[in-house]
Amino acid sequence: MKKITIAIDGFSSTGKSTLAKQLAKELEYVYVDTGAMYRAVAYFAMQHNLIGAEFFKKEALIEALADIKLEFRFNADLGFAEMYLNGENVEKQIRTIEVSNFVSTVAAVSEVRAKLVEQQQEMGKNKAIVMDGRDIGTVVFPNAELKIFMTASAETRAQRRFDELQAKGDNVSYEEVLKNVVDRDYMDTHRADSPLVIADDAIEIDNSYLNKEEQFAAVLELVNDVVKTI
């Protein structure tokens, strides 16, 4: 079976990572969560007092990029790779609402994007990869054989994210999560460098009323159709 590159873009909390993991497992492809990479950089900035509610030391973060080492390490027990920042497993830390509040600001920095996009393109040079993020089909892999763009209403996405955080024991309100979703949508679509847009050849999927199984089946059919044509 021929190997392809699958690019999954879309708004926050649309289940991009869940779908990408399902596809990677089914196809025996490499899965890369680019959002985790940007979250790790945001977490680094928070830990080093480079970003906060009232400040962002952008130039200091740019200078510190050389000191940031990101890598994915496969966890056999979980069945997917986890994010490591400078040798430390930060998978849990980067998924908090606090990091979510800063990740779009950090991701808008051109120097950060350049560093991470270079790494992402290197990861996918041999195809057989599923990568999700905000600019995979437009910037990272503009020639990907299959591009998916995922969307859902802000309220639906906020409820999903709220339920997820509650299950983890995080003390957050639905209103706080909804505000985060709306704010991130605006920042992701209005940043100067690589804004979130639908690639001309992407297939848009609104999963507001789809469950994970229905969505997976639909996209797997798209994968099979693409593979047959190359």
Automatic annotation (TrEMBL):
Keywords: ATP-binding, Cytoplasm, Kinase, Nucleotide-binding, Transferase. Residues 6-224 form the Cytidylate kinase domain. It catalyses: dCMP + ATP = dCDP + ADP; CMP + ATP = CDP + ADP. One of its GO terms (molecular function) is ATP binding. It is found in: Cytoplasm. CDD domains: CMPK. GO terms for biological process: nucleobase-containing small molecule interconversion; pyrimidine nucleotide metabolic process. Its EC number is 2.7.4.25. SUPFAM superfamilies: P-loop containing nucleoside triphosphate hydrolases. Its main location: cytoplasm. Belongs to the cytidylate kinase family. Type 1 subfamily. HAMAP family: Cytidyl_kinase_type1. This is Cytidylate kinase. It comes from Flavobacterium nitrogenifigens. The gene is cmk.
